[in-house]
Design goal:
The structure is a single chain. By secondary structure, the protein is an all-alpha fold. The protein has a single domain, classed as Peroxidase, domain 1. Helices cover 52% and strands 0% of the residues. Helix 8 packs across helix 12 and helix 11 packs across helix 12. The N terminus is likely disordered.
């Protein structure tokens, strides 16, 4: 038992160290073109057409980073050599925004051909979606290369599902170097969802205030919002964010930066895809 626990912690430490080494190679001004301006303008246009697209782009970034790091593998279509992640349980019939990334990539190929990674586009699009909908802004370091493969099995195994317990979620976050506090902060991204009784979409603290108010009326502890307010390690964090929107915004931004730097492909690994849906020939 002791040996098994020791091996577990050694593996987790190795994963965290690998993530730190990769993130140290990212740079704020990696590209010598106006990539930030082009991405933000495109995201703004799409959100003006459909506000909930912001949440979709953010979710796409989450699901990308949780499967073998932030490498744009979620964008790849199936090929003869691998089955991609779009058909995973957490993505099938729900993941969207692929066409938006395609449009941004096409424009960047006109302005800066062969220079901008799809993984960086996805990271910037998520950040800009949050900011445009009223959330915090944070600096994004760039240089995440694009993966040459994807894995349906890994996506099914590694992306949290709605029926996961709080313990399962915390374990998955911890394996990626993310704390329980960061789990709660990142869960606040659900505030951007368009509710059934509202036509507006915005980023605010209501996710936490609503969960605190509804927790006594709902007994489905498998639902992520309810499990957070009922969790011993998370209840105080939910209440703090509900009372202090500035603390939530600051922690959310910090957690997004950390998540976006999970195991990026740098150096000789990966490539700059010409088309985000397929690897280069």
């Amino acid at each position: 038992m002791f040996l098994r626990a020791t091996v577990k912690f050694v593996v987790q430490d190795a994963i965290k160290n690998e993530a730190r080494m990769g993130s140290s190679l990212l740079r704020l001004h990696f590209h010598d073109c106006v990539v930030n301006t082009i991405v933000k303008s495109a995201v703004q246009d799409e959100i003006n057409k459909e506000a909930r697209m912001g949440a979709s782009l953010l979710r796409l970034h989450f699901h990308d980073c949780f499967v073998n790091g932030c490498d744009a593998s979620v964008l790849l279509d199936d090929t003869a050599s691998f089955i991609g992640e779009k058909g995973a349980a957490a993505n099938l019939n729900s993941a969207r925004g692929f066409e938006v990334i395609d449009q941004i990539k096409a424009e960047l190929e006109k302005q800066c051909p062969g220079k901008v990674y799809c993984a960086d586009i996805l990271t910037l699009a998520a950040r800009d979606s949050v900011f445009i909908l009223g959330g915090p802004h944070w600096r994004v370091e760039l240089g995440r290369k694009d993966a040459r493969t994807a894995s349906l099995d890994d996506a099914n195994k590694d992306i949290p599902l709605s029926n996961w317990t709080l313990g399962q979620r915390a374990a998955r976050f911890n394996a990626l170097g993310l704390s329980t506090n960061e789990l709660v902060a990142l869960a606040g991204a659900h505030t951007m969802r368009q509710t059934k009784n509202s036509t507006s979409v915005k980023f605010d603290k209501n996710y936490y205030t609503n969960e605190a108010e509804q927790s006594e009326d709902r007994d489905n502890t498998q639902a992520c919002p309810v499990m957070l307010i009922n969790g011993k390690a998370t209840k105080s964090i939910v209440n703090r964010y509900g009372d202090n929107p500035n603390a939530f915004s600051a922690d959310f931004a910090a957690a997004m930066i950390k998540m976006s730097e999970i195991k990026p492909l740098t150096g000789r690994d990966g490539e700059i895809r010409q088309n985000c849906r397929r690897v280069n020939n």
